[in-house]
Amino acid sequence: MSELHLYIDAFSISPYAMSAFVALEEKAVPYKLVHVGMHTGEHRQPTYRARTGRVPSLQHGEFVLAESSAIAEYLEEAFAPPEHPPLLPTDLKERGIAREVMAWIRSDLMPIREERPTTSVFIERVNKPLSEQAQAARRRLLAACERLLTPGKTTLFSQWCLADTDLALMLQRLNLNGDELPGPVRAFAEANWSRPSVTKWLAHSRSDYTPY
Ligand SMILES: N[C@@H](CCC(=O)N[C@@H](CS)C(=O)NCC(=O)O)C(=O)O
User: Fold this and answer.
1) How far is C-alpha 125 from the chain's CA centre?
2) What is the pTM (predicted TM-score) of this model?
3) Residue 36 C-alpha to ligand 1 middle, in angstroms?
4) Ligand 1 site-directed mutation target among 9, 55, 73, most atoms within 8 Å of CB
5) CA of 62 to the centre of ligand 1 (A)
6) Which of 53, 75, 127, 180 has the highest CB neighbour number within 10 Å of its CB?
7) pLDDT tens by residue, 13-45
């Protein structure tokens, strides 16, 4: 098998890097983790091989791929179920919804992402109340959760999928900063937060974090 390398930001605060990391961990294939010093502009050097210069990126042999959702899709096909654990549901419609959630989390809810950045999840909490816009985004997030989640269940579908982790991170931006979530939604977020692939990500060192 060609060697796999995952390139992530040096302080493990990128939500996209976290998603790619969890995807690779869940596939349980051997790989090496490489930290990219974005604060020193390492991702802009010619030695950083992602075509777009963005982080995360995956290198499989000589092949290089960026964009966390493209990385997840690539891993799902290169290390396909049933030989390897799935990242997406096998049912066509559920897989469609998982992709919908993943695309939505990456493209919407900006006020929450701005006012509850991942540094407030992984490094230092914030205590500033949510703005009107962030409260509106929170209401939309919770309305979607109402439709997506089944109370008492800690996964979107019958089995874990990568959309569970992506959605849990968005919810943890609120939960960990003291912005209240309904009980079943909080239970979903916290259950996904204690998944081994996620706790391994949380254990990364961030002690020398330098804002960039
Ligand atoms: N849509 C991309 C977003 C990746 C992204 O925004 N990465 C940031 C770090 S969190 C980055 O590379 N920023 C540097 C740049 O765009 O020059 C993904 O899902 O991977």
Assistant:
1) 19
2) 0.97
3) 12
4) 55
5) 21
6) 75
7) 999 999 999 999 999 999 999 999 999 999 999
